[in-house]
Design a protein that fits this description.
With about 80 residues, the protein is mainly α. The chain is built from 4 helices and 2 strands; from the N terminus they run ββαααα. The longest helix has 19 residues, at about 50-70.
């Protein structure tokens, strides 16, 4: 069972585990998907189809990659 902020999830467990491991927020995932954060949260209330799950997991990877390029203060000194 995945846990985030004291809540236990059995629905979309892989997504919550990947999200927590990547250190990304719902808004960052939603941004990658081109949807609003509330829409993402509503979708995650029910088990996603495998193709939808793969799309969200890819968005998590992209958001994590973007986070790695950032530094404190929002600049990467390029």
């Amino acid at each position: 069972m995945a846990t985030t902020k004291g809540k236990k999830y059995t629905v979309n467990q892989k997504i919550y585990e990947a999200k927590n491991a990547a250190g990304v927020s719902h808004w960052q995932i939603a941004d990658e998907l081109g949807i609003c954060e509330m829409t993402l949260q509503r979708k995650l209330r029910h088990q996603l189809q495998p193709d939808q799950e793969a799309e969200v997991l890819e968005a998590i990877r992209k958001a994590e990659s973007k986070n790695k390029g950032r530094t404190i203060g929002g600049t990467n000194n390029d």
